[in-house]
Amino acid sequence: MKWHSRSSFILFAAALLAVLAQLSHEYGPFTLFNEKPAEKQTVRTYPAPEPIPQETFIFPKTTAEAAQPYENINMFQVPHIFVEELPADWQIRSNQDKTLFMKIITAQILRTNEHIAAEKKRLHFLEEKYLRNQPWTPEEEAFFNQLLQKYDIFLAKKREGQLQELIGKIDIIPPSIAVAQAAYFSDWGQKNQKALYGEYGWVDNQYVPLEFKTISEATDSFARQLNSRSQLFGFHDKRRIMIPFQKDKYLSESILDSISQFMDWDKDYIQNLKKTYLSGYILQLDHARFQENAKDEKKE
């Protein structure tokens, strides 16, 4: 009797296993306690960035040579041609010379903004991976660490806080701010040509204007300073709110006061900067685009 019961149990168990095997084949493996099988996470890689049009850097010897790439070109649609130093004969004799200066600086800040926008796009990609609990690649870790150093982020912060601070800081610089700063501090390029934007720093225990070899280096540094300084949080907040409406209004006039801390040692800084705004069409430069981008916007 005992042998018969044991035989029946073995047959029942074998039949049950056969049924489970069939069901598993049709519907997938079974798990205990209603546990869901681990989802396979595909490693997402950052898509190849869109190619930036060829950039041409020139070192003109005369003002006429500097003006040549910008002749018969709308001030709000500049080419990917960048004057890297102002010529020896540079002087402001007319409004036409001021217009050329505005074109030169506008092209430079638009170039810087393209690189900033590419950084922020990749940063948003890393944020998305972080929120999905997906690991970063070694290359992405290295890129993120470079941003932490570049934009002066507190390294002891948790990663989530670092991401939030970077996203709050990194953004494009309104062209009118860059042009007005350069025009004010250099008197439209007639002085301080190596320290075009009036950046100061400590050199040999002296707080002096920082000098740069090229205008593009100076422009990149100026943008980095505006984006990295924590005391300019008011500028960062106002810019973040207003940039989505850039096509409908000018950005810089209402946020100009928020950058007063950039040169906090100069009590007349903002007042003089505003006067510079009134000496040309600087404010309207917030609508400036590269020629290719302007054509794309018209198609839309």
Which key features would you list for this structure?
50% helix; elongated; mainly alpha; two-stranded parallel sheet; 11 helices; 300 residues
Description of the structure:
The chain contains 11 helices and 6 strands. By secondary structure, it is mainly α. Helix 3 crosses helix 6 (175-186), helix 3 (95-131) packs across helix 7 and helix 6 crosses helix 10 (269-277). The radius of gyration is 29 Å and the shape is elongated. It starts with a helix and ends with a helix. 24% of the residues are buried.
Largest sheet geometry: 2 strands, parallel
Beta-strand residue fraction: 5-15%
Name the strands of the widest sheet in spatial order. 1-3
Distance between the termini: 87 Å
The helix/strand order is: HEHEEHHHHEEHHHHEH
Determine the number of helices (DSSP H or I, runs of at least 4 residues).
11
- Structural class by secondary-structure content: mainly alpha
| Alpha carbon gyration radius | 29 Å
Helix content: 40-55%
Brief account:
This protein is mainly α and 300 residues long. It has one domain. It contains 11 helices and 6 strands.
